[in-house]
Amino acid sequence: MDLTLKSLHLVNFKNHRETRFDFDSRINCITGMNGSGKTNVLEAIYYLSFCKGYFNPQDAQNVLHGEEYFSIRGESDRGGPVAVSCAVQKGQRKRFKKDDKEYERLADHIGSFPVVIISPYDVDLIREGSEERRKFVDMVISLDDRDYLNTIIDYNRALSQRNNLLKYFWANRTMDKTQLGLWNEQLCHLGAKVYARRASFFEEFRPIFKEIQSAVSLGRDDADIHYRSQLSEGDMLPQLEAALDKEMARHHTLVGTHKDDMLMTVNGHAVKKFGSQGQQKTFLIAMKLAQFQFIKAKTGLKPLLLLDDVFDKIDDERVAYMVDLVSEQKFGQIFITDTSKERLGRVLSDIGESYNTIELTNLKSEKVEEG
Q1: Which of 47, 85, 89, 218 fits a disulfide with 69 by CB distance 3.0 to 4.6 angstroms?
Q2: What 3-state DSSP class applies to 306?
Q3: Whether residues 283 and 334 fall in one domain
Q4: What predicted TM-score, i.e. pTM, was given to this entire model?
């Protein structure tokens, strides 16, 4: 089933005081100079999926300067009309609605409006610490597995409680092994569930990624991903008990799935250290397209695909392949941003179908017919 965003209405969101967009059901190109707000349109669409921003998750910082609130409303089609809206008032709880019915928990919305974004900011997946890679894995799994999302929430809550206990023990020069044992038991139980689900995910996701990466790199690079976890070395409880002295000294938990990581390689070497800028970008594009295929296979829905400035620093041959790939019918609605309307026109001229262009200099929308 195709998920389609028919329109988007922004009020006081970033640099948009009040803007309405009407979209094509397939390909939408958003052009404008840097600072015109084209990436902010993708940010708003991302909000409708994850209840927070991709580029800036701090809600208050996404309110137009001088205003007290912002609102985002999307009219979509998922086998029938569906309205999704988000409202943020400074100092108040964020409100999120589907068909004007407010969610009690934001987590209950995750997965109902799937979106995949490809952006220059994705490089954090490679260059930053393991937390970024865990967030990516957890996000992809959670879109189709509500039980896993709840397990992650419970695990993080138990981890926080255990860390607070370690800090209390250190500050008061005391130890209560019975109390610590209760949190150890809960953390180990939840950690085992997280580990099993992540391991299962990598078994499914890895071959999808490798196939797409080989295609996007035109067969020039052999990239791979591997799951790394302390729990692969044995049960969590004995490792926790062995690490207790170090944990007391550092006041936080050193063993568990919150230390998991994803090893990323290209041609047998760490892509973070040895991958060129082009190899890293190709690697990340393949990761996100694999995410799209994984979500589609699990949910039966084609996520919205958001491409933010993806053609920079990629050679023309790979650009042509990417455009040809995402224009296939296995992909659904696509949103592309670029500073150059002319460049997008050249890139899309051979795909054989119409597309919509929105120029943010004057917010004029025009239909470009099949050429």
Answers
A1: 89
A2: strand
A3: no
A4: 0.90
